[in-house]
Amino acid sequence: MKSKPLIIAGLLISLGGVVFADSAADTWNTSCAGCHAKDGSGNTIMGKKAGVADYRDPKVQAKFTDEEASKIIHDGKNKMKSYKDRLTDDQIKGLIAYIRSLKK
Fold first, then answer.
1. Distance (Å, rounded) from C-alpha 75 to C-alpha 16?
2. Which of 1, 4, 21, 78 is deepest in the core (most CB within 10 A)?
3. CATH number, residue 73
4. 7 confidence band (pLDDT: 50, 70, 90)
5. Count of the separate structural domains present in the chain
6. Can you give the pTM of this predicted structure?
7. Cα 35 from chain centroid?
């Protein structure tokens, strides 16, 4: 009988990860894809104008740490605006994990 609560807890944790991943994808699509493209290629009108990098490229992703990405998303940089008033720290962490998942 003690195993049922553990199984239920494990399922809830697993489902929470899926919800979190979907949330990060939603955040990407609504807040980032306009410049960075849904696939992370940067192949958009705004992305080309701003000279954004192709986040699908492992070499591009190797050029920045999660901490550096967090600071840029939070504070903004060059033409990218700050998201400190729009995203929580947890949302930013999820977004960085999502960016890392774009790597091919």
1. 28
2. 21
3. 1.10.760.10
4. low
5. 1
6. 0.76
7. 14
